[in-house]
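Run log, item B.
One chain of 421 residues. Sequence copied directly from the ordering sheet:
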Amino acid sequence: MGLNKYTILLMLFCSLICNTNLEAQSIETAKLHISNLCSPSMAGRGYVQQGVNVSADYLANQFQSLRLRKFTSSYFQTYSFDVNTHPYPIQCKLDGQTKQVGLDFLVDPTTASLQGKYALIHFNMRDSLDKILLYKKIEKGFNQNHALVLHYGSKRGSADVLDSFKNYRHFPSCIIYTEEKKMTHSIGRKIDPIPSLIFMDSVIAQKENIDISVNNSFVNNFESKNIIGYIKAKKSDSFVVFTAHYDHLGKQGDAVFPGASDNASGTAMLLYLAEYFTKNKPKDNMVFILFSGEEAGLLGSEYFTQNPTFPIEKIKMLVNIDIMGDAEKGITVVNGETFKQKFDQLVAINAKNNYIPEIKIRGKTKNSDHYYFSEKGIPSFFIYSNSGKGFYHDVFDQANTLALTNFEQVAKLLIDFTLKQ
């Protein structure tokens, strides 16, 4: 007996409702993962309170719940590296007024312990006369209670100043660099001889003294983990790989760096794709790798490419997802110029389906976990989203700041792209 047109319409309507509910469920699951990864229990997914390894356990459990296969006896690949941390309370006053770490200032990640009250000696690095006076001061020497403030100076841009300290063997007790717009935190893997701080310029301008207490903890051979799972294809011996880094900056004193956009969002995207492909079996073996150590210098991905758990020469395509908090203006593809044919394929799929507004192209850069794969000649993209509030490596990159605009549209684009490989 044939179906009448009303029955067919009802079936189509029910199918549409069902798919909509599934999509809503998926985006809500992604939001939950982001919220959990940014929760206080994860301590910023860094090296204080074992935050990165607490989050590794959480993510391995997600792989297990998705029934991803293991290449070894565990989802984990363990390696180690040295790291400097500041896990203890940090106290700071400028002219007697208390300042907050993470908001008003940061401790440079390579700084050892620093305690004392210092007179602030100010120099404007944009003023040529001030720079001349600075070098004369370096030649003359500093008192033990001097802290040098380099307004609009950065550690990276002050190599000549640091060299002058070494040449004259005259060192201040502390160097303070300033920023105009925002402070950006990072990970330290060594101890520098001169302690340094970073202040918002407006906070420290015209101040006369600083009272500071900082204690570091240098950890030798901190154990960290990559997390690797896969879906086995029926016949193919080739691999398509999705990667993302799950680590972030952790804590400094009481300041927490949640890392919502960077990169809880990319981690959630990887889990979203893993869930999809467990329900829609791919033609090729599908591998999902969550790297640690990215913020410390791409250490997890470098270690993996040197110690692969499957034949990486059989990878047809690798897509690394990093910063997927808001794709309102589309995405950018690093290595798009290097693997232009693959990039054109991605653009054609988007043009056909109108998933996202724009796909921008970039060349080769060593700025995320795709790098060591592409250095081995493996076709590798790094994609990131082109919108958002601009919170990056700071205390404001929180789960509730993410719009996740076009999150699922990007996922659909990557699914279609995967099926074309």
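Observations after the first pass:
- Residues 5-37 form the longest helix (33 residues).
- The chain has a mean pLDDT of 93.
Flagged for discussion on Thursday.
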